[in-house]
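Hi team, as promised in this morning's meeting, here are the two structures we talked about. I've kept the exact order from the run log so nobody has to guess. The first one is mostly here for context; it's the second one we should focus on when we meet again. Sequence first, then the predicted structure tokens.
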Amino acid sequence: MRFLYIPLVILFACKTNIQVESPSSTILTKNITYNNIKVDVIIDKPAVTNLDVLIVFHGTVQNDSEILTAANTALNNFKSILDKKNMMIVSVAHPQENILFGDNILQAEAALLWVKNRANQELGITVGKVFLAGHSQGGYLVTRLNRLHQTNGVIANAPGPLNLVYRCELEENGQVQSSSTCLKLKNVYGLTTANSSSYFERSLLNFTDGFKSDILFIQGQDDSPIQMYSWPSFKQKVLSCTNCQKSQFVDIPGGHTALFTNTSAKTEFNNFINNR
């Protein structure tokens, strides 16, 4: 059987380093630095000074020339389902092209720590609660961040890759189309059959404990076969965690982007934020 995995990327126009003023919000792109780690973020700031913040992370793209567009897409998608209109949204343009999968956790962490510790001064605001949300690879990043730093809550939609051993082995055997993710890992670690532990160490299945904050996982049950193959194992490992804060799973009809189209998922997303 051949599996086909095609990541979905929805493109929106994105302007860099331009502030857009409206009666209700300001949107700007900003290059931020924390602990000598630089990353671009797109900020949608309501016209108030006391703000809760939602930090969002986009899914996989092939080239870093696409990450600002992907960050803008993530901002628009999460904003479209967010009931609270007075939250500031910070969308992180985390790099992917010239690094091994998972190494962009450094930029993801820098963005979170910047919001926590420097956004007040640099934006002239008072930050209240801080939430994380991510789609696909962005869901992978927020799940890992939840093991590093406490926030007010984390939402991960269709997080992955869950199992790089399984995914990259399928690519090696020609059962699915090749990806830059697995090719770069192969160049460093060799085949999965020779060095499966290095592939597993970067898989989300390796990050299922030690959650410092409550986390909501949302998964469309009609997602790709690669995702759904490992989803039951991932879910079981998380729910078996003995050193985690509360973990909640919402399995819904739909594909990889079901959070943004499914009514019950949107409700769970907003209830999670509003109840914390």
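And here is the second protein, the one for discussion:
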Amino acid sequence: MRLLLIAFQFLTIIPLPFSSRCEKEDLGRSTAFFPIIGLIIGGLLAGSNWLLSPWIARSLCDALLIALLALITGALHLDGLADVCDGLAARGSRERFLAIMKDSQVGAVGAVGLVLGILLKWQALAAVPVEFKWQALLLFPALARFGQVLTMTGARHARQDGLGATFVQGMGKTTLLLAFATVAVVSYYLLGFSGTLALAAVCLLTVAGRIFFQRKLGGLTGDTIGCISELNEILALVVISALAAIKF
């Protein structure tokens, strides 16, 4: 229970009426519960959709849901997406890439990447057929947060003092297997074979992103993990909408 609360406090900004003791190694161990926190976030989105959809147009409802997702998570991973876009645009050395990501200011390319990422997520959600919408809302945050676990497990870290490094040091195969078992069962339960294919797509993108950043930077940072997570949210919604449209 304590590790679940630690994961909840890290992945959301929702205040809890009590605090939980957290040792350094607990951060890595708490990642086993990341997909469950993703389901909780998805449940909040699905509940909000149930309340809003009878009263407002679909496009506006979907935009509000994407805004709510950013609010619940404190836009934590959106910041990573913007920083990585700025780093890639610099086209410099590893050190320059890392320095740009560490800079708190967002550049022009980062702003463009941020806007495009939000627009793609909004339109991907809008493309999900209404009969599968609540399942998609529950599932895509869980898939992306499993992607975070897969990204970090056994990875090298580009900085020794970053938060990403702290997580990586406390993780192992057990946390990955627990996270995978959770998301695999949920994916199949919610969307059947389509959910399983969405999980497979997230795994492929995650592995590709991890290989790219480890070659580019010699390891991962919190920003690169956040960037991959944002891309996985978009991909999960795209795959779910595509498979639902062709009734796979």
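Starting points for discussion:
The two ends are 37 Å apart (CA to CA).
The chain has a mean pLDDT of 82.
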